[in-house]
Input
Amino acid sequence: MADVVSLVKGDTVANLKVSLVREDNGTAFGVAAVDSVKLYIRKKGTTALIDTVEKDSVLSTETEGLFVFKLGAAGKFLTINSITEGLYEAEVEITFEADTTTQTVFDTITFRVREAFS
Output
């Protein structure tokens, strides 16, 4: 996940689609629909969380390892007043409903945010 995702503050239809693939065999890392998949976001170089975005259960295909996070939904990352231009990073965490164990994806996702022109 070395790419940088470019975003514009205030956009309300900014969806991030994440595909989880097993490193050992290249297959999709699917989970049950009831499992919790969250995206934790912070400003790059800091430790304070800015937002937690849960997977969108309608747009995600959990069993195929495809998860959609609505970054521009009301009250979410791109609509938060304190978000400024700059670099942010996010991590994906899965909590398995059956036994409440968690697994965090090691690679982070980098966002570059800029202000809108209007």
The beta strands are 4-8, 15-19, 36-43, 49-54, 66-70, 86-95, 102-104, 109-114. The longest strand covers residues 86-95. Residues 4-114 form a domain with the Immunoglobulin-like fold (CATH 2.60.40).
